[in-house]
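Feature request, filed as a ticket because there's no other form

It would be nice if the structure record came with a short human-readable summary line next to the tokens. Right now we just get the raw output. Example of a typical job, pasted below so the devs can see what we mean:
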Amino acid sequence: MQIDLTTETLITLGEACRAVPPTGVSAATMARWIQRGVRGTRLETVLLGGRRLTSREALVRFFNSQNTAESPEPPPISPTQRRKQAETANRLLQEAGA
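Raw output as currently delivered:
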């Protein structure tokens, strides 16, 4: 989902850090949630006037996604990880005589 600028309450990332119960989170944690996400879900943001903002509703959606029974898609793996997995699989096949 995307942040709806007409209906959602926009907040700065600093405000978002302080809004996370019980004691807030660091700016580095907020950046990770935005850039990499958690369990396949990233925190939604918008860029307005050169400032990155999120919304209280986006925070709720992000936290709800972390607490659902559904299993989200795993994040994509990097080319390096894919190569290492392929090398391990090939080695195991050779050891098994396949």
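Something like this underneath would help us a lot:
Residues 10-96 form one domain.
The mean pLDDT is 91.
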